[in-house]
């Protein structure tokens, strides 16, 4: 076999691949792919990296055989497009098998079965965000069909992955993930991704209602925006890419995304990769949970469903939330005490952030790109520089977007947002969804949290400590400005 970068020396599940596939060479070694993932700060599409993954054969038809008779929850939404995002709280839900989904989704749908109330010409269905571990339970061998080790993450497979199966029009409203970065393998059909940089956060009108751990939603329906209500959205720069089967999209940390299925059946698999920054994000998430639950249950103790995303089982008590917060803070200190990456300290100065970005920009300027024939970007003909050759295609801003003045909601002088140590408080409302806390992480934090509860003297953060920070004059000033800014929209 021709040895070269990333040559596949298959001994694992890919060993069943044909002669031709065994001869094919991957464009990046796992080490190189990981290096790219850990340094790249813009979305990009990896090509020719998964041709030997058994999971490339996971069509919805194939999966319906594997998951024979398994009841799966489908989210149902309307195909018509309103200016209001279709949040999960406003969708309907149906329990059905994949077989029933495929029968409903075919050319001559039956009028019986669990989908009978939903005309497929008007509605879409989405088995979204399904953890393999829940879906395949006793069929754990299947985890090996997904081989994130090719991207430099040894041992990572289906166990750390989620599956998404949808009909045309199925979509996920625009949000950012608080944790990690994301690798998304498109298996069947095509999905169109609308991406926005973290810098555009103020233009996306972030909201934590509906509340879900690790997701910050945008109030804007980015495919049909209400510009009267959300005028700043015009300043956001859309990066659009159509992901084809066999490609893997890299979504960097905190990039906003709206994702829509544009083929009759789509299947994709993703894995959120943990990052150093998640330690602080976990503390931020715990603060958010405490605040949202406290205020929403005070407002109306009986009306949880309206504000709580269906992915959250129930609202958590103040006691539990404080335990989460203490668990996250302890884990943060434990990690940074024991790790050597002290320079990754949580409260990075804005200066450091800019430096990292500049470095990245220089990288991109170095080499011209040839692009991969199979990438369909939003509007066609743009070619951007990529240091990585034809098999890594950067997702660049869509040219139809008006050039934006780069200013935030508060464009005056920005002084109000700089804390005493040079921290940029403007980032306070900018830094939240991605990888939801994995089950094992939940367990770890929960464990630390429950230790704290057993020994109150070890509790790091009391309710008063939290309140002191939340009602710090610098914070309340920002809150006041945000509230006033929000009201202005209506005058
Ligand atoms: O594919 C989708 O609909 C959404 C995927 C997503 O939000 C993610 O992978 O973070």
Automatic annotation (TrEMBL):
Biased composition (Low complexity): 1-12
Basic and acidic residues bias (residue ranges): 19-28
UniProt protein name: HSPB1-associated protein 1
Composition-biased stretches (Polar residues): 369-379
JmjC domain location: 124-288
Keyword annotations of the record: Cytoplasm
Keyword Amino-acid biosynthesis among UniProt keywords: no
Signal peptide segment: none
Keyword set includes NAD: no
The protein's role, per its UniProt record: May play a role in cellular stress response.
Gene: LOC101399893
Subcellular localization: Cytoplasm
Region (Disordered): 1-28, 364-391
